[in-house]
Amino acid sequence: MRAFRALLALVIAISPALDAARADVRIKDIAQFEGIRENQLVGYGLVVGLNGTGDTLRNSPFTQKSIEGMLERLGVGNLADEQMRTQNTAAVMVTSMLPPFARRGSTIDVVVSSLGDASSLRGGTLMVTPLSGADGEVYAVAQGPIAVAGYAAQGANASIVEGVPTVARIENGATVENEIDFNLNSLRSFRVALRTPDITTANRVADKINQSLGPRTAQVLDATTIEVMSNDKGATAEMMAAVENLMVQPDSVAKVVIDARSGTIVIGSNVRVDKVAVSQGGLTVIVREDIQVSQPEPITIGGTTVVVPQTEVQAQEAEAHFTILEGDVSLQRLVDGLNAIGVTASQTISILQAIKAAGALHADLEII
């Protein structure tokens, strides 16, 4: 209760300056350029060098097939008829993100995840693994020792697991072998895509670009997209750099976000409440069990001990007070009203839901 009131007090202290604090932000912080993005890569490989924590070949036949194929490519010979019993190898899936404009020879990070029943990848080394994109082309090759954050230890009657020892990471573990051709200067126009669609913000972005780079340079296509025409000099990259550093004031819808599991409540500055009276009361029922022992006659003559439970039930109803929230209540007035009632986080959640159900809360109520 004390911590929640401290949080509300902090919101009260901040809320008078919210309008002033809504400073302009860079366009690059609220939007991205369409087409300039990362691409997902995936591959299948083997991790070797495990200390008996790899796949059991009986339960993971694909691991055995992969080992046979790898050894055949290395000139060991046909091992199809041989019975393998190694537990130092694990089949893994390797994933990575290919950043935009990645050049041949640059390195990227990879994530290695166990595919079979290996208990841990600690101490292993990833063998050469091609990484393919959605089009089936190989864009990078991964290999190297892996780093596992979690660990697992097991004894005869107890075990402990910290983190996930079957998922590992290799920093700069893949080398880019194929580039994605993309020439910025060949574009006659480029598009700015807002991360949060909002038609007001889109118009502000377009107006700011037109003020800075000239009239009719940018136009709004929809609530997410603003198209910017390139100049005749072919300096598209310079225009992008100029656009992404322009300052605008983004707009947002009024929203109240509630995390019912932790009791966290976030109220946006645009939230408004119509005139409404709020009261919060509670009924507490206390059940108390007292055990009494009764022994009417001595045990030597056949007396038996009898347990007699005594039950006491009490009902306590908390005193409720009405608080009137005037019309067009701002964030500070709303928090003041909730503070005046002296409610807890869970009670505040119920109050906000009830105000929304009454049609007095003009905001989106999102419960996560």
From TrEMBL:
Compartment(s) where it occurs, according to its Swiss-Prot or TrEMBL record: Bacterial flagellum basal body
Broad class of where this protein is predominantly found: other
GO CC entries: bacterial-type flagellum basal body, distal rod, P ring; outer membrane-bounded periplasmic space
Keyword Transmembrane tagged: no
Annotated keywords: Bacterial flagellum, Cell projection, Cilium, Flagellum, Periplasm, Signal
Signal peptide: 1-20
Keyword Cell division attributed: no
Alphabetical list of Pfam families matching this protein: FlgI (PF02119)
Domain of life (superkingdom): Bacteria
Any one GO molecular-function label of the UniProt entry: structural molecule activity
Known role: Assembles around the rod to form the L-ring and probably protects the motor/basal body from shearing forces during rotation.
Subunit structure: The basal body constitutes a major portion of the flagellar organelle and consists of four rings (L,P,S, and M) mounted on a central rod.
Name used for this protein in its record: Flagellar P-ring protein
Organism: Primorskyibacter flagellatus
